[in-house]
Specification:
Low-confidence stretches: none
Largest sheet: none
Radius of gyration: 20 Å
Structural class: mainly alpha
Strand content: under 5%
Mean pLDDT: 86
Number of strands: 0
Order of helices and strands: HHHHHHHHHHHH
Shape: globular
Oligomer: single chain
């Protein structure tokens, strides 16, 4: 019963994450302004959380620098993600972002100096084919697809480094400092681009959307996600998290209607990519179990 409850909470959390793309489409401000508000609100919300829970946020200088640098990558990722939505559609961006699995399969063995998995290569090739179909049939959104792929690349990089850092530091503490790092990184971008201007002022409707994005979709969703992930297997978490683009696309179609209607080629490519992403945990576990059995036979 406890696990069923945790799975439901995780699905709810993933649904909230999927809703971030819809909020990006609803907000009238630019991608860089949107992210600036998001990370500022998320950092403040987490700071209030630490005070309320009476938890320490002290970390070493070395860790602080690491968290800030990775946070900078997180900030760039979100700017690319929301800019992709602004110049294409929520559906295009969310499906393209699913290439995160592809980039991780390439980058993780390089960064961690580990052996390349056969499952990673196989799934990666299928995802490339799906992306090719989307490029072919939705070429009018070519820049949206490119920015979506760049966002997926950044997400892959910070996910790999987070997986390392979370072994030594509380995930919530890491997120707090990463949000601060993202805030400073996005602020620097805005200074160089001259984006501290009248265009960043929020309209009346934007206030509700930006608070939802910063508090509910970032701070609260993260705390909920971390809490249940400690109780569930990595396989269950991976499989459930793959629902994010599906939830996001369904919500976008419900809210934006015809604006989110795509070509048949797009949906074929999307099914191929999402199918590959869903199959990935099954294939990886089967191949790893097979390799373990072969090693055990050799040892005996």
């Amino acid at each position: 019963m406890v696990n069923n409850k945790n799975v439901l909470i995780l699905h709810f959390t993933v649904l909230i994450w999927g809703f971030t793309g819809v909020l990006g489409g609803l907000l009238s401000i630019s991608a860089v302004h949107l992210v600036w508000y998001r990370v500022l609100i998320a950092a403040l919300s987490l700071f209030i959380y630490f005070i309320f829970m009476g938890k320490s946020i002290h970390v070493s200088k070395e860790k602080l620098i690491q968290f800030f640098l990775v946070g900078g990558i997180v900030g760039v990722h979100w700017v690319l993600f929301f800019h992709s939505i602004k110049i294409s559609t929520v559906s295009v961006t969310l499906v393209t972002l699913s290439s995160l699995t592809l980039f991780t399969s390439i980058l993780e063995p390089i960064i961690n100096k580990t052996k390349i998995s056969k499952a990673d290569v196989a799934i990666g090739l299928i995802i490339i084919f799906g992306i090719y179909l989307i490029f072919k049939f939705e070429f009018q959104y070519v820049w949206g697809i490119i920015f979506g792929l760049a966002a997926a690349f950044c997400a892959s990089v910070f996910s790999i480094f987070n997986a390392r850092m979370v072994k030594k530091t509380s995930p919530t503490v890491i997120t707090f400092y990463e949000m601060l790092g993202a805030f400073f990184a996005v602020s620097l971008i805005m200074v160089f681009m001259g984006d501290f201007n009248a265009e960043m002022w929020l309209q009346d409707a934007d206030w509700a959307y930006i608070l939802l994005l910063g508090v509910v979709c970032t701070a609260i969703a993260y705390v909920l996600g971390v809490a249940v992930m400690k109780e569930l297997s990595a396989f269950t978490v991976a499989l459930t998290t793959n629902m994010e683009p599906i939830y996001g696309i369904l919500l976008a179609m419900l809210i934006f209607g015809k604006q989110e209607t795509m070509s048949l080629g797009f949906y074929i490519g999307a099914v191929i990519i999402l199918g590959a992403v869903f199959l990935y945990p099954y294939v990886k576990v089967k191949i790893e179990n097979r390799e373990k059995r072969l090693i055990n036979r050799k040892l005996h």
